[in-house]
Every structure is written in structure tokens, then in C-alpha cells.
Amino acid sequence: MTETPAPEPQRGLSTATLDLPGWKHIYSGKVRDLYEPVDESIRERLGQDCVLVVASDRISAYDHVLTSEIPDKGRILTQLSLWWFGQLDVEHHVLASTVEEGVPAAVEGRAMICKNLEMFPVECIARGYLTGTGLLEYKSHGTVCAIPLPEGLVDGSRLEHPIFTPSAKAEVGHHDENITYDAVVGIVGDDIAARLSDLTLKIYSTAEKIARERGIILADTKVEFGYDPVSGGIVLGDEVLTPDSSRFWDAATYQPGQAQPSYDKQYVRDWLTSAESGWDKSSDTPPPALPEDVIARTRSRYVEAYEKLTGRTFA
């Protein structure tokens, strides 16, 4: 009797995909969908293997992808990432971003054709301020990712020097776990770990200065890197310095010792944990749909972050 092989476990998010001529869907994350070219001439024209990265309007919170979407979120994240890639003196993965360069017209403005990198299984995080999961560890142990910090720090305290606080990547629906630098060495080796740390802190320092000049505090940010088999280099990938990957605060209202209002999905988190939503985040029940006012206010914060940082009007 021949046994039927068990199906492979689901990788990524199961979601509706687009019919994009010349491209085949290969993976969906919480926010982005990836497509590979089925026409060899696309690779030949761009000079290497590539992938189409399409940002959706999906939004996630507490390790759940919500049924509600935030209008224009995909375009805002893509356009802000492209702007930041132009500000950073770091090799990045973008090969093309316009229809004229080969991006399908159906996803114009929210898609990039990028180098197909071999991504390192590490989330690279730089923190210049103490908050979030870092604050929780500090309160318990006086450290963040096993890095000792001075006594007396509070929520929102600025650190004397930015620190590299990596986490291990998790599958969709699971939470990334903070890890030590030594753990990164165990995953990718001494040389690559040192390079990832240096690049992450370089990106943070450059972006922190640019944001501060525009009245925004960059408290922390997450970036991802991959190995480019063509150049042999370590390349910045994914998104960069968006409200989904970074914690932005208004410098005018910044006050250490309390939670800071941020330019991200704060309205979503606040509503989901309110009595109005009736949702228990510790349960297995999916979150409810968002009210229209929460969707509108969340979109407004994304737009405001884009316009303050870039100096451009989002249209």
C-alpha cells in the first residue's frame, strides 16, 4: 500500500493574491507579498535574480493579522522606505520601483523589484531609548538582551549610546524572541554578527539625526539583511525606517517617565485592548474588525510620519 505523503506545513500567511502578468506569487508575510518572475527576460534585464515585493494595506497587532485594512498603508510604507534608502549610505536591495523600470502597473507605488537575497534569520534592532520589551527586561534584570544598563532609567530614557539588541525571526503568527549578541554569533558566525551589528547601528545613527532635524525622535528600529550571491556583500533588505519597523515619537511632546505617543498602530493596539473591543489578547480568538474612526486615525498617523520625515505631501 502506498502512503500519501503528508502535506508540507503552511509557510507564511494564506491570503488572496494578485494576478500580475510575468510574475508568480511565492510567499505572503503579515504585510508584504512576494512574487518571482516567470519571464526570464526580467532577470536578464535587471542583471540578476530578483523578486517583486508588494506592500499590502494589511495591519497586524499582537501577532494577529487583522481583517480590517488601513487605506494607503502599503503605498506609504513603500514610498517612505524608498526615501530612506536614498538617505542611507548602505547597499540595499532595490533594483526598480517604477512602471517604466518594470514594476506592474497594478501595484504601482506600493511595490519594488528587489535583489533576491539569502536573508539572515536575525532581526537586527538598534535602540537609542529604553521602552517596550527592552524596558520589561531592564526592570527585571537591569539589562537589555544581556547588555547591562545604568540604574535609574525610566520608560523613554535616552541611552548614552545606541545598543544592538537582536531578536530571532519567528513564523507568521508567532512573536520574535529577543536574543543576545552571542546567540547571533552562534547563528551566523563572528564576522557576520559583527558586520550586522555595525551596519544596524550605522543606520540608526544616521536616521536618528535626520529624524531629529524634522522634529521626530527615532526611539528604535528593526532592519533585516541578506547575503547577495552576485556581489558577495551583506545587503539591507525588506522595509526600512517605517512606522511598522520603527518607533517614532514627536520630539515636541517627548517626556521620559511615561509611554510616548507614537507614529504607528498605537490606536489599533489601544482599541483592541479596550473594553469597547471586548477582545482578550491572551485568548485564541482572532481580533475583531476595527471601527472606522480607529482606521482613519491610524491612517492619519502613518501619513503624518511620512510627511514630517520626507517633507513631501502624500497624495
Write down how many β-strands occur, each being a DSSP E stretch of 2 or more residues.
17
- Specify Rg, calculated over alpha carbons: 20 Å
Describe the sheet with the most strands: 8 strands, antiparallel
- Low-pLDDT segments, ≥5 res: 1-10
**Helical proportion?**
25-40%
Run of helices and strands:
EEHEEEHEEEEHEEEEEHHEEEHH
How large a portion of the residues is in β-strands, by DSSP E? 25-35%
Mean pLDDT across all amino acids: 92
- Class from secondary-structure proportions: alpha+beta
Shape: globular
- Secondary structure tally, helices: 7
What is the straight-line distance between the termini? 62 Å
Task: Give the topology, please.
Elements: E1 23-28, E2 32-37, H1 40-46, E3 50-55, E4 58-61, E5 64-69, H2 73-87, E6 94-96, E7 111-115, E8 118-119, E9 122-129, H3 132-141, E10 143-144, E11 147-148, E12 158-164, E13 167-168, E14 177-178, H4 181-188, H5 190-213, E15 216-227, E16 234-237, E17 246-250, H6 266-272, H7 292-310
Antiparallel strand pairs: 1-2, 2-3, 3-7, 4-5, 6-7, 8-15, 9-12, 9-13, 9-15, 10-11, 13-14, 15-16, 15-17
Give the structure's gist in a few sentences.
The protein is α+β, with helices and mostly antiparallel strands and 315 residues long.
